[in-house]
Amino acid sequence: MAAMFMTKSVFFNLSKSLPQTCSSLSLCSSRKVSRVCFSAVSNYNYNEGRDPVDRTKERAEEMKEKAKEETKEGTNRAAETAKSAKETAEDYANDTKEKAKEGTQRAADAARDTKEKAKEYAQGVKGKTEEAAKTAAEKAEEGKKKAAGSAESLGEKAKQTVQGVLGAAKETTQKIKETVVGKDDKDDREKKNNKYN
Q1: Is residue 63 within 8 Å of residue 71, measured between CB atoms?
Q2: How far apart, in whole angstroms, are the C-alpha atoms of residue 59 and residue 7?
Q3: Residue 55: other Cβ atoms inside 10 A
Q4: CA separation for the pair 13, 22 (Å, rounded)
Q5: Cα 111 to Cα 114: distance, rounded to the nearest angstrom
Q6: Where would a tag sit more exposed on the chain, N or C end, judged by fewer CB atoms within 10 A?
Q7: How far apart are CA 73 and CA 79, in angstroms?
Q8: How far apart are CA 161 and CA 179, in angstroms?
Q9: d(CA 20, CA 23)
Q10: 91 closest CA partner among 80, 102, 103, 99
């Protein structure tokens, strides 16, 4: 920066010493050099009482210190940026971890709900199966009773049929007997039997 200042002041002083017909930054065709310019530069260094080499060394030291400070500031900014990036990454990792936990919890809840629904469904199916089995057993019992009733009624009818057949056989036998023996004897015998009874 100091070198820029010196360069600017040299050009400024040089342009003052040149004739006004020339542009401020360009040199005119005349080769006349003004002593004011050189004397100003030399007076500048000697007014401070320093040797130009010492001044250059001091400027180099200043530039070195300034470079150190800027490097240190840059390092600090880089460290802060790295720290900020680390914090951001940690925050992102924590958010991701929380979201993963929430997702896991939701999956566990869904699995538990599904298990409960399956259990309820199984109990419902079991209840329906038991009801169906009970109904089938009741219907089988009714069928058995109906079959027993039908068998009983068939037995009664068979008994009545057998009694009817037996009665018909007796009548037929009686008729045959009457035809063969005669009707009168029968009446006589009945009368005799009735007397004794």
Answers
A1: no
A2: 14
A3: 15
A4: 14
A5: 5
A6: C
A7: 10
A8: 26
A9: 7
A10: 99
pLDDT tens per residue across span 112-159 = 999 999 999 989 888 888 888 888 888 888 888 888 888 888 888 888
Within 13 Å, how many C-alpha atoms sit on residue 87's CB side?
Answer: 6
pTM of the complete model beyond 0.85: no
Spatial contact of 186 and 177, defined as CB atoms under 8 Å apart: yes
Provide the pLDDT for residue 148.
Answer: 82
43's tokens? 């007076």
**SS3 labels along the chain:** CHHHHHHHHHHHHHHHHCCCCCCCCCCCCCCCCCHHHHHHHHHHHHHCCCCHHHHHHHHHHHHHHHHHHHHHHHHHHHHHHHHHHHHHHHHHHHHHHHHHHHHHHHHHHHHHHHHHHHHHHHHHHHHHHHHHHHHHHHHHHHHHHHHHHHHHHHHHHHHHHHHHHHHHHHHHHHHHHHHHHCHHHHHHHHHHHHHHC
